[in-house]
């Protein structure tokens, strides 16, 4: 590796590479991930989930980015090629899409998150980054990784793990850090039944956000050691981090120390929109007068592939047939024709026809809503054509027969479900 060691007074991000693990399916989103990986799922009208991790990296000053893809990667790769191809090698920038391509052995997909980095060591080495910031591609949050890099260097840690304070019994689904008073991780438990509490905070546990900072050379040593360890899952959370907790120095980094909050954001925002309910709720939350997530903050923009679209348009103005949207987000190229929309989110290119009603609907791009349809508490997948007069949200038993209905009454509607009607 060419060690151009870090120059004093320069941002550490300049010597870092962000490596986004975007291979996951996200099976708890059910049919939404039948055609796309979870990081490629649409969010907030214009973006996809992975845009948050990538925007954080760019906004933090990181100019080398790799994205490892695996499951149903086509729409994700297409999105990355269209929206994230502005990084230029002549400015010491790089953007690599790294599908599992049997580069190390003939029959091997990425076995785990650590293997997804291990198989690309030669590519990373060619850039010579001093630090690696390992990111999950499927969470929604805003964070300045520079501050985490600084803590990593100041503490002399072998690995720094970003952590989120959660109510102790909600931490059962996470990897949980047991820390001492200095923030050093003394134990790491994956999905514990009885999560360890924080020092002085008996009701709070520290959950791992799946964000890790390493010195590159140490990381490569660890990946090579792990690759030779029989029975390893080749996974950061299950293998690499626990080994360093026991045999090295692992330090927790508090999300609240580096979370980006505009003046409108009351508290640190992080969401794993990994279930249909959580996905619906996080999108609908954006319609609040002061949403928990501020997408309008110019100082920390969320970049994405942005299609050139005509403006949204509202037509007809007769009682009972008035094109209107209240407390809603409406993206470009939408035509709301004689229909009423309340507390909903319309992605690019949606068409709604006369006498239709939407209430708390999350509508993905290029959906057509037929005349007289009445839809409440729904998530409608991309390109679905809702038939005239369809009613969803009134009859739970009928809804559950036709669509994927969650316990809290959100219905996911996809094309195959409509075709079966």
From TrEMBL:
Keywords: ATP-binding, Carbohydrate metabolism, Glycogen biosynthesis, Glycogen metabolism, Nucleotide-binding, Nucleotidyltransferase, Transferase. NCBIfam families: glgC, PRK00725.1, PRK00844.1. Involved in the biosynthesis of ADP-glucose, a building block required for the elongation reactions to produce glycogen. Catalyzes the reaction between ATP and alpha-D-glucose 1-phosphate (G1P) to produce pyrophosphate and ADP-Glc. CDD domains: ADP_Glucose_PP, LbH_G1P_AT_C. It is an enzyme of class 2 (transferase). Belongs to the bacterial/plant glucose-1-phosphate adenylyltransferase family. The keyword Nucleotide-binding applies. The record marks 70, 109 as: Could play a key role in the communication between the regulatory and the substrate sites. Homotetramer. GO terms for biological process: glycogen biosynthetic process. Residues 19-287 form the Nucleotidyl transferase domain. It catalyses: alpha-D-glucose 1-phosphate + ATP + H(+) = ADP-alpha-D-glucose + diphosphate. This is Glucose-1-phosphate adenylyltransferase. HAMAP family: GlgC (MF_00624). Pathway: Glycan biosynthesis; glycogen biosynthesis. Its EC number is 2.7.7.27. Alpha-D-glucose 1-phosphate binds at residues 110, 175, 190-191, 208. It comes from Sphingomonas jeddahensis. GO terms for molecular function: ATP binding; glucose-1-phosphate adenylyltransferase activity. Residues 310-413 form the Glucose-1-phosphate adenylyltransferase/Bifunctional protein GlmU-like C-terminal hexapeptide domain. Pfam families: Hexapep_GlmU (PF24894), NTP_transferase (PF00483).
């Amino acid at each position: 590796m060419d060690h151009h060691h870090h120059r004093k007074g320069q941002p550490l991000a300049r010597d870092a590479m962000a490596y986004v693990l975007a291979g996951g399916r996200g099976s708890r989103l059910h049919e939404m991930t039948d055609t796309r990986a979870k990081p490629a799922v649409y969010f907030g009208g214009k973006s996809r989930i992975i845009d948050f991790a990538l925007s954080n990296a760019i906004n933090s000053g990181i100019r080398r980015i790799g994205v490892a893809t695996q499951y149903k990667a086509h729409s994700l790769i297409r999105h990355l090629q269209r929206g994230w191809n502005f990084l230029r090698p002549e400015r010491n920038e790089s953007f690599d899409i790294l599908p599992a391509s049997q580069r190390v052995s003939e029959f091997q997909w990425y076995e785990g998150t650590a293997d997804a980095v291990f198989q690309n060591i030669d590519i990373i080495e060619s850039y010579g980054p001093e630090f690696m910031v390992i990111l999950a591609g499927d969470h929604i949050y805003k964070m300045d990784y520079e501050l985490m890099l600084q803590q990593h260097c100041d503490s002399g840690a072998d690995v720094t793990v970003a952590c989120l304070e959660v109510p102790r019994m909600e931490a059962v689904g996470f990897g949980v850090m047991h820390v001492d008073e200095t923030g050093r991780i003394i134990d790491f438990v994956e999905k514990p039944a009885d999560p360890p509490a924080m020092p002085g905070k008996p009701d709070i546990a520290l959950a791992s956000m799946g964000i890790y900072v390493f010195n590159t050379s140490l990381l490569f040593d660890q990946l090579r050691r792990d690759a030779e360890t029989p029975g390893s899952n080749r996974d950061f959370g299950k293998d690499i981090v626990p080994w360093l907790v026991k045999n090295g120095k692992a330090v927790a980094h508090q999300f609240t120390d580096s979370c980006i909050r505009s003046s409108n954001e009351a508290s640190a925002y992080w969401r794993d929109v990994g279930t249909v309910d959580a996905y619906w709720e996080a999108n609908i939350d954006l319609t609040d007068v002061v949403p928990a997530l501020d997408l309008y903050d110019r100082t920390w923009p969320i970049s994405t592939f942005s299609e050139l679209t005509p403006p949204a348009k509202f037509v007809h103005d007769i009682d009972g047939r008035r094109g209107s949207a209240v407390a809603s987000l409406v993206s470009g190229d939408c035509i709301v024709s004689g229909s009423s929309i309340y507390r909903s989110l319309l992605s690019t290119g949606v068409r709604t026809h006369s006498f239709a009603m939407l209430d708390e609907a999350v509508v993905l791009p290029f959906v057509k809503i037929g005349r007289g349809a009445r839809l409440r508490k729904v998530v409608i997948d991309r390109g679905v054509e809702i038939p005239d007069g369809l009613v969803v949200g009134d009859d739970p038993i009928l809804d559950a027969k036709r669509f994927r209905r969650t316990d809290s009454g959100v219905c996911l509607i996809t094309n195959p479900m409509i075709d079966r009607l």
